[in-house]
Amino acid sequence: MNIKNFKLNTKIIAFGLASALLYSCGEPKPTDGDTDDDLAGTDTVKAVALNVGGELFSIPSPMQTALLIQKSGVAYDKAILNIGNKNGQYVSEYTKSLNLGIYGADLGYVSMYNQTQDAIGYLGAVKNLADKLGVSAAFDQATMKRINDNISNKDSMLMLVGVAYRASDAYLKTNKRTEISSLILTGGWIESMYFSIMAYNKKPTDEIKYRIAEQKQALVSIVKLLKSHNLPDALELVTQLEKLSKIYEGITTKYNFVEPTTDEAKKITYINSTTEISISKEQIDQIAAKVLAIRDKIINAKS
Amino acid sequence: MKKNFYKGLLILSIIGFSNTAKAQCDSIASLCSKHIIAQFISDGQSYRSLLLNSDEMAEFHTTFFGETTYRLAACSGKTDGNLIFNIYDQDRHLLFTNKNYANAPYWNFKVKNTLECTIEAQLDANKNAGSGCAVILIGFKQK
Predict the structure, then answer these.
(1) So what's the pLDDT on residue A140?
(2) Could you say which of A11, A71, A275 has the minimum Cβ distance to residue B6?
């Protein structure tokens, strides 16, 4: 492409985009059906798709682990949680984000055990850090009121906290602050691992042991996610998580595919495959030591 | 002078398009969230990707834990059924595709044992010839 052509292309592209943008900002035209309307709307994103796309990552919800622990009959233990009124000591975006994830998991844990008074405290810590991080849109007055109104209703609380964290994730992604979102997810995951380890120490059931062992994929995603942002503050954390990954590499799994079955009327598919996991006491201990060290550093940060 | 004008116009237009795309993703996510009904707890994430055409695919890996029922909602555009999603196990066995069920916008999965999955989503060429924002949401409940 020579320079002349580039100039011409710039003019054409600029006019084309500006015209289309003005068109898209105008009054919506009545359409015969939704499909045509969709096409008009969806075509406009073509120009930015390359800049917005990217790999997607999925991190398990910490509430899922808290639910398993509660169902396993492990008693509520407030002492294992991060202290709620410490939230003021987190100054940098890095520590605030990680600890927002940790407090979110703690809020899920206390809600799971119907600890209303503690839930109020953790809700305050979450709200405080969310405000400081500029994600108060996800914890706005209406959401906070709904959560407060349902604070003694476990099921509603869990649902509302999940929705609020999803809203925060969406808000951060929309505003291109994905590094904050990634750190929140990382904090939540580390806290859920910590819950599992503490629960296993109290009641070493196979269910909890396997849940600890089943985090290989989540950890791979977290490491990739954090590395994709290349955050100087997170370098040490990434190194520690990679060391944790090394321990996970030693855990063996044997997957057996079984054909799924579907009940179309109920819109449900039964995933019947089985997985056998083999994890040693030594591996559990190594994972526990590493997770505790990582979490300690995060919750005791004073910057 | 003229050159700067066109450059400026181009930059402003791109910013405008970016905002349009963000707003589009937000409204799709909002519509999609209605499929994660109150019985299900959200996993706290909003998976979204801008797809240029029906050949492009959004993909992510996740773990489905045993003894759990998941609900997966997949949306694009202002109506249901524009997005095809497939779930594969670690050996690329197809566990589910909503293509077999009229591109159902949501589906439930009762998982016996924990497994690692890959979820793929693409626009349905028969319904949406252009580009669009694809949104996937996941909710769960204990069996």
Answers:
(1) 85
(2) A11
